[in-house]
């Protein structure tokens, strides 16, 4: 898989997406990296710790977050993206549900779009990704939790999104799937995603998972955000053992170490 100018050898090792939220209200790092200098400095730190992709988010996607207007999202994302391109040499992903934000970001140098709208919130998202031939991550999301057979229903939802993407002309080798831990799922359903993660690999696309410090961890352990790192690392190791290809995290250094040792055991790299 090619993302930007970088080749990702899917299956050879686990790749890390480092999160840089330029929002006031993201659940963990909201308000920490709002200035351009803060965001760039933090992104450089994540790359030095082992991030293979840096992802910028300008609208909090946490459940219950207040939606922001398009212009506000653009004003948060574009100045950081424009400057960040000068400072790092890894691909930059944009976390957005809006095709307009995706398009303007791609024109400024973004190499990947992480669509937390599952290709359905904005009917133009797939065509934008196709037009510019960028990688896209399709994250499972829906407006309800009316599941009949949970895993099969999530797979069905992802297949619908895949049909949209493929029909728009997005190549197979530009697509990543994310089963959407934390989105339209209870604590038990989030656990079920991780337990059954290998089922998503059967769709024959690279799989990304984002569990970093999320509320299901806090609910299980009754711990605040600041004390959820160890549990996040456990989910990283489990995800790799179940054929996950990308992890999306806040704490790159610690997760990188887990990836190295787990890849050594699971993938037999040496």
Automatic annotation (TrEMBL):
It catalyses: (7,8-dihydropterin-6-yl)methyl diphosphate + 4-aminobenzoate = 7,8-dihydropteroate + diphosphate. One of its GO terms (biological process) is folic acid biosynthetic process. GO terms for cellular component: cytosol. Pathway: Cofactor biosynthesis; tetrahydrofolate biosynthesis; 7,8-dihydrofolate from 2-amino-4-hydroxy-6-hydroxymethyl-7,8-dihydropteridine diphosphate and 4-aminobenzoate: step 1/2. The keyword Magnesium applies. Transmembrane segments: none annotated. Its cofactor is Mg(2+). Pfam families: Pterin_bind (PF00809). GO terms for molecular function: dihydropteroate synthase activity; metal ion binding. Keywords: Folate biosynthesis, Magnesium, Metal-binding, Transferase. Its EC number is 2.5.1.15. CDD domains: DHPS. Residues 14-260 form the Pterin-binding domain. InterPro entries: DHP_synth-like, DHP_synth_dom, Dihydropteroate_synth-like_sf, Pterin-binding_dom. Belongs to the DHPS family. This is Dihydropteroate synthase. It comes from Lacrimispora xylanisolvens.
């Amino acid at each position: 898989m090619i993302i930007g100018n970088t080749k990702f050898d899917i299956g050879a090792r686990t790749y890390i997406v480092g999160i840089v939220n330029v929002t006031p209200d993201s659940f963990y790092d909201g308000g920490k990296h709002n200035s351009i200098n803060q965001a760039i400095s933090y992104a450089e730190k994540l790359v030095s710790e082992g991030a293979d992709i840096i992802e910028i988010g300008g609208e909090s996607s946490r459940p219950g977050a207040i939606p922001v207007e398009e212009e506000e999202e653009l004003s948060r994302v574009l100045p950081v993206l424009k400057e960040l391109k000068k400072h790092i040499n890894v691909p930059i992903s944009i976390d957005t549900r809006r095709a307009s934000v995706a398009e303007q970001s791609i024109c400024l140098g973004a190499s990947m779009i992480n669509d937390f709208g599952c290709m359905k919130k904005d009917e133009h998202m797939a065509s934008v990704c196709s037009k510019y031939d960028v990688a896209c991550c399709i994250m499972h999301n829906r407006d309800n939790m009316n599941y009949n057979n949970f895993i099969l229903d999530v797979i069905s939802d992802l297949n619908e999104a895949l049909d949209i993407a493929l029909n728009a002309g997005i190549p197979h080798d530009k697509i990543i799937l994310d089963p959407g831990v934390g989105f339209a799922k209870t604590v038990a359903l989030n656990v079920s995603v991780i337990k059954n993660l290998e089922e998503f690999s059967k769709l024959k696309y690279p799989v990304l998972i984002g569990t970093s410090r999320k509320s299901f961890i806090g609910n299980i352990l009754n711990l605040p955000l600041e004390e959820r790192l160890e549990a996040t690392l456990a989910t990283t190791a489990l995800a790799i053992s179940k054929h996950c290809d990308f992890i999306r995290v806040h704490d790159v250094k610690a997760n990188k170490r887990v990836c190295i040792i787990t890849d050594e055991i699971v993938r037999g790299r040496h």
